[in-house]
Amino acid sequence: MIADLFRRIQMVEGWGRGMPLIFENAPSVQFRQIAGLFIASFERPSFVEGMNQVMDDTKEGRVEEASKKP
């Protein structure tokens, strides 16, 4: 019902394009159906990898430079 509403008020890019776009941009996606719910699971960088990047940026002063920009 929500998707149909968005289509009628022209808030969707294209009808029926979601799955091809997902497979094109995230080929490792996993789909499940549990108790009537449709779940898509996407891989993402781990928390540890993200923290390492933040620490590297802080050491090199990139965080401070980025915070000065309007």
Any key phrases for this structure?
70 residues; 14% strand; two-stranded antiparallel sheet; single chain; alpha+beta
Which strand-content bin applies to the residues?
5-15%
Measured as a percent range, the helix fraction is 40-55%
- Tell me the total number of β-strands: 2
What Rg do the Cα atoms give? 19 Å
Structural class: alpha+beta
- Tally the helices: 4
What is the strand arrangement across the widest sheet?
Answer: 1-2
Tell me, briefly, the overall form: elongated
Average of pLDDT: 76
Kindly, what is the distance between the CA atoms of the first and last residues, rounded to a whole number of angstroms?
40 Å
Low-pLDDT stretches are: none
How many domains would you count in the coordinates?
1
How do the SSEs run, as a string of H and E? HHEEHH
What characterizes the major β-sheet? 2 strands, antiparallel
Characterization of the model:
With 70 residues, this protein is α+β, with helices and mostly antiparallel strands. The chain has one domain. It has 4 helices and 2 strands; from the N terminus they run H-H-E-E-H-H. The chain has a two-stranded antiparallel sheet. Strand 1 and strand 2 (37-41) form a beta hairpin. 0% of the residues are buried.
